[in-house]
Amino acid sequence: MIVDLVLNSAKAYFRNEIVDCSLAIDEGRIWKIGKETNMPQTDERIGLRNLLVLPGLIDAHVHLRDEGKAYKEDFTSGTAAAAVGGFTIVLDMPNNDPVTMSPETLRNRMSKAKREAFVNVGFFSEFPKKTKDIEKIVEEGAIAFKLFMAEQVGGLDPDDDSALMEALKIVSGLKVPVAAHAEDKTALKAAVEKLKLARRDDVEAFLEAHTDDVELKAVKRMVKASEQTNMRVHFCHVSAENGLQAIVEAKKAKIPVTCETTPHNLLLSADDLRRIGTLALTMPPVRDKDSMEALWNGVRNGWIDSIGSDHAPHALGEKAGSVWNVKVGIPGLETTLPLLLTEVKRGRLSIGDVVRLMAEKPAEIYGLNGKGSLSAGNKADLTIIDLNKKYKIDASSFKSKAKYSPFDGWLVVGKPAKTFINGVLVFDDSEIVASAGVGEIVRRA
Ligand code: DOR
Ligand code: ZN
Ligand code: ZN
């Protein structure tokens, strides 16, 4: 047996511990993990001294844009950013132009991404207008449905209870999870109208509209819906302490809910937002120090299942002005892993936590079989990191089209060094070294 490639002198996160080992890769898959002396013959060897191999990390919350929003980001730039950031799979959100909410829109995105992506990509769909299309969308390979509760994005009004319950019963029957952006549309709209009448349009007004209670109200509604339909709900970007608490209660009551938070909600406070201004605006916004501490507790004790970047790139010109017109969202693919590795260095997280939050759990929640762990037979999706590399985040060098970040200039320790996608070295040191199209489309099994 002569394999395609052997990675030698590696440390790897394998079966819940860091071990010294080598990895043999053949035809895009991990062929063997074992001692260097037990490796098969090979055409090519790469030494990985001082680097750590993790299972390919999954960012389950990415807005890749493209199509009508390609001026903000496209499949090539977005997935290059993913590879540079150490992600081997990204799940694409559906608020696109056109909105992903039919077999046809999904198929179009899949065929474009297949040609242009550097990493593996799976797709969310919004709910369609006609409930009978839900099953067709799942057959087409959507990973999950997204429910944007803050305003209507897809074919379903999130505040129409009976339509929502009907849709949720169908997805529950199909065993597909629903990812929810939990902010209550009616409460939010009322608050925004009032602030607009008072001629308020500053960051403070945005915070006054997007309160913890707006998030809590939507969380409670979806917890109840999950209880009634037994539908699996994954809460996106949990930001508030009371929202998290409601999710914890639901978990204790064995209601099938899971949740995600983001690096910005963990690391930036409302004071940081006031200082930086509209550039750092996200929905939901970053909150006070107590909320951040509550999120850290949730991460440490496992109540928070996953971390997603919520990579939401916009053109720089869209990031200034009235908070009601500013496009909310920040790029996160190229900062998430270094920021979290810095927290590993500080002792707030372990490598095991990083793997659980960004590989194992996302794979489990979204049913990505054969992903999220290093195991012989799995596709060779590898995130290889240098835990000791110190550098300053420089947004101007991002592969993303969005070349700004509230973390610009932050000193971080820990950097993605190489990213393998399906056995192909895509990112090496600081460069993309493969051609677009190595990424595969990930479909729901
Ligand atoms: O900050 C956000 N940006 N929150 C969202 O829910 C949408 C996203 C975007 O698409 O820009
Ligand atoms: Zn969202
Ligand atoms: Zn998002």
Notes on the structure:
This protein has 445 residues and is α/β, with parallel strands linked by helices. The chain has helices at 75-84, 103-116, 133-140, 161-174, 185-197, 203-209, 212-229, 241-252, 263-267, 270-276, 289-300, 336-346, 351-365; strands spanning 2-3, 5-14, 17-26, 29-34, 41-42, 45-47, 52-55, 57-62, 87-92, 120-126, 144-148, 178-181, 233-235, 257-261, 306-307, 382-392, 411-421, 424-428, 431-432, 441-442. 33% of the residues lie in helices and 24% in strands. Strands 2, 3, 4, 6, 7, 16, 17, 18 and 19 form a 9-stranded mixed beta sheet that branches. Strands 8, 9, 10, 11, 12, 13, 14, 15 and 20 form a 9-stranded parallel beta sheet that branches. Helix 5 packs antiparallel against helix 6 (203-209). Bound molecules: (4S)-2,6-dioxohexahydropyrimidine-4-carboxylic acid and zinc ion (2 copies). The site of one zinc ion has 5 residues, from loops.
Find the count of extended strands (DSSP E, 2+ residues).
20
Mean pLDDT over the residues: 97
Largest sheet: 9 strands, mixed
Low-confidence stretches: none
Q: Structural class of the helix and strand makeup?
A: alpha/beta
Shape: globular
The radius of gyration is 21 Å
List cofactors, ions and other ligands: (4S)-2,6-dioxohexahydropyrimidine-4-carboxylic acid, zinc ion
User: Which band does the percent of strand residues land in?
Assistant: 15-25%
Total helical elements: 13
Percentage of residues in helical conformation: 25-40%
Through-space gap between termini = 31 Å
